[in-house]
Amino acid sequence: MRGNPFSLRDDDAYRRWRERKLDGYPRTSADLLVRLGEAGTVTPAEHAAILSRCRKANVAIYEIAAGDYTSKECVRALGRRFGLARLDGNLCADGDRITSLRVIAGGRRAGYIPYSDRPLNWHTDGYYNPAELQIRAFVIHCVRDAARGGDNGLLDPEMVYLQLRDARPRYVEALMQADAVTIPPNSEGGTELRGARTGPVFSIDPDSGTLHMRYTARTRSIRWKDDRDTRAAAAMLAELVGDDSPFVFRHRLAPGQGVICNNVLHSRGAFRDDPEAGRSRLLYRARYYDRIAGTGPADCEREVAACSG
Ligand SMILES: [Fe+2]
């Protein structure tokens, strides 16, 4: 690949990437949807369909048509098919490192919004992880939906980068500073479970040249570096990352559907369970240190070259 589109020193590479990125960018969540014939297997055609969406928008939505989609093995197998193998074991993950997301009334998880029916603000997963354990991809997989609500918002960080770089390249520079944001420590009952973490919002993986974003819209979960450009960049990010963005995909996962993505920004609406009707929302979530194989800027450029050549 010639140059890196995410480097501020490489305007030519950025222009080429930008043109390609906007060409045929998906408009709605229906454009992201790929039907999988059988749980636990992905045919070459299904694989290609998911991969092309992830190359374009870093996210695809799948829908399993037949078979047992209720086991975690189904999620694990899907991940493996896309080069996702190294699972993150966060504080609340089950022993097998795949988390069951559902409403939990008591215990450690009760204090965390993901385990409640409240809305979840825009964020990337693992924004509090250290640099060497960044979450590059995740799968969320719906086993049961709620009686009402619980739709997701999905937003490709590369589109946010593009908008920011077009408007104010120096804000991108501010957000690439190694001390742009600090995530305060996580404490429970006076015990510190995780120290404060300082790092950039946008970073470029030195090996693959891919863009990574760490972000949360929860203001009490993040402290911005106190300089003028960083503050202004944070304010612009708050506008770009939100329900009003023209690039947000909205989707309510039905049982057997899921999202596979390169850790795109996401949000979740409030929901209401109805256990008596068997409508208690249950999602499996697998977070990976790997990125979806074949979705780096070099892979995308090669694909275009092959098509036009
Ligand atoms: Fe999340």
What is this entry, summarized?
The protein has one domain: Clavaminate synthase-like (Double-stranded beta-helix, 4-Layer Sandwich), CATH 3.60.130.10.
For the structure shown, list the relevant keywords.
26% helix; 309 residues; Double-stranded beta-helix; alpha+beta; four-stranded antiparallel sheet; binds fe (ii) ion; single chain
End-to-end separation in angstroms reads 16 Å
Q: Please give the order of strands in the largest beta sheet.
A: 1-2-16-5-19-3
Give the structural class: alpha+beta
Sheet of most strands: 6 strands, mixed
Shape: globular
Succession of helices and strands: HEHEHEEEEEHHEEEEEEEHEEEEEH
What ligands are attached or bound here? fe (ii) ion
Unreliable sequence segments: none
Describe the structure.
- By secondary structure, the chain is an alpha+beta fold.
- The chain has one domain (11-308): Double-stranded beta-helix.
- Helix content is 26%, strand content 24%.
- It contains 7 helices and 19 strands.
- Strands 1-2-16-5-19-3 form a 6-stranded mixed beta sheet. A 4-stranded antiparallel beta sheet has the order 4-17-7-15.
- Helix 2 links the parallel strand 1 (33-36) and strand 2.
- The longest helix has 14 residues, at 44-57.
- The protein binds fe (ii) ion.
